[in-house]
Amino acid sequence: MSAKTKILASLIVGSILNLGLAVPSVGAAPSALAAPSALAAPAALPVFGDSGPTVVRLQEALIARGFTLRGGADGVFSATTQATLKNFQKVVGFKPTGRLDERTAKFLGLIAADQPKAKKVKAAATPAATPASTPAVAPVAAPTKTVVAPVAATTAPTNTPIDGMLTIDSLPARGQKSDAVRLVQEKLIANSIEVKGGADGIFGVATTVSLTNFQKARGLNATGAVDLPTAVALGVLPDLATLGIPQISVFPSQGRCSFVDSWHEPRPGGRLHIGVDIIGPKGLALYAVVDGTITKMYGADSKLSGNALRLTAPDSTYFFYAHLDSFAPGITIGSAVRAGQIIGYMGATGNAGISHLHFEIHPGGGEAINPYPVIKALDACHVTEVLPQP
């Protein structure tokens, strides 16, 4: 996996954009911020070749997630939209089909999280009746795809690129030559960091060294890459909260340890790996990555996870820790913990095989996203001393 793909994968980072997917009332102009109450009967998920307001909402959701869509939200499900959708699916760990399936629509916020799964309907079926509170409109012709229910109106994050900033999928990587590289170099220079050769738009050794110097000066993980925390600190990306990416303040394990990006690697029984495995010796301290509450715990007799727990943040995002050798004294369901507090110790319970921590991130309490880029930005596997306890 390339450095750029790893950076892109953190998008997952994912908050859910509550964008209702529906057909607007006759005469109403499509808008990303239009309240679903102003919309008419539910519409079908769009497919390649479709056009109209349902496609606009798909495109706006992709743009709001930080993906560049050439031509903007033009309402046409073209090859460009299909390619961008496929890129999004690849980044968040879904099968990159380029089709707007139900799982992708839910992750984008086009299907309400609290709605039952949509059902398939035959082409000749009669469209669902319009709710009594909604003015009657002409039915959508021949609905052949998944029906989507409108959701409550909320204000979505900005859905257009911001002047002077990059989007997540345009963050440059080493070896590239582009205007994005030049912008990063200009920001480094503006922050009093020397870039040998100036802002030449070439991401080579000199730019890597300058990025490392900037990261050290700001107390960031010195990767030499334009990772998300660095991009935000440089001012070439909005803050992570705006992007909807979960943030952690502490690396989850004491060192020495190691980890690689194993997202969606196959596992026995047809399962896919939905976390990251931090490998280390039995007994390493495991830390709360954020302030939160222990909301679930599992015993050593749990077949897959062994000793495990769920740490839930105030925004309902939860972090799952598995294969612990033991829990820290006093840790029980309902325990309030602080970032950096020891909550357990690395082990090999369950189906671990070897001593390691299996770590997952579930934004907003939803489906897991690839945690590798999130923890890579705070990689502390070299820190062998136990952190001072809060």
How are the SSEs ordered, and which strands pair?
Layout: H1 3-9, E1 22-24, E2 39-42, H2 53-64, H3 79-92, H4 102-108, H5 179-190, H6 205-218, H7 228-234, H8 240-243, E3 266-267, E4 271-272, E5 276-279, E6 285-287, E7 292-298, E8 307-312, E9 318-327, E10 336-337, E11 342-346, E12 356-362, H9 372-376
Antiparallel strand pairs: 1-2, 3-4, 5-12, 6-11, 7-8, 7-10, 8-9, 9-11, 9-12
Write down the secondary-structure element order.
Answer: HEEHHHHHHHEEEEEEEEEEH
Kindly estimate the percentage of residues that lie in beta strands according to DSSP: 5-15%
Radius of gyration equals 23 Å
CATH architecture of the largest domain: Orthogonal Bundle
Number of domains: 3
What this model shows, in words?
This protein is of the alpha+beta class and 390 residues long. It folds into three domains: 160 residues, PGBD-like superfamily/PGBD (Muramoyl-pentapeptide Carboxypeptidase, domain 1, Orthogonal Bundle); 76 residues, Orthogonal Bundle (Muramoyl-pentapeptide Carboxypeptidase, domain 1); 111 residues, Glucose Permease (Domain IIA), CATH 2.70.70.10. The chain is built from nine helices and twelve strands. Strands 5, 6, 7, 8, 9, 10, 11 and 12 form an eight-stranded antiparallel beta sheet that branches. A two-stranded antiparallel ribbon has the order 1-2. It has a two-stranded antiparallel sheet with strand order 3-4. It is globular, with a radius of gyration of 23 Å. The chain starts with a helix and ends in a 14-residue tail after the last helix. The N terminus is likely disordered.
